[in-house]
Input
Amino acid sequence: MREYFAGDVSAINGIEVRQPGAQFSQAAWQAMRKIRPGKVLSYSELAERAGSFAAVRAAGSACAKNAIVLVVPCHRIVKTGGALGNYAYGVNTKEWLLRHEGAL
Output
């Protein structure tokens, strides 16, 4: 984590993690791990990458249930149109993380 906050935003990519969750949540978390630093996806794009274009609410729920923030980068998921949306640690933190990674 030290490397990430020191500026190497790809330092967290190789960290292996597991967390319990439903099949769609697992697929959404895997899709989040594939989003490169400096990039964002909308909730609908996340739903599609997780296997169900219509599961936008489930994509949001997967973000909310994610217990391994940063490593499973739910902060890279935004609303359609680019609005930041919610974040468990506050919108200011989400904005800081996205700026740190070069997405904003």
Summary: The beta strands are 41-42, 77-78. The chain is about 40% helix and 5% strand. The radius of gyration is 13 Å.
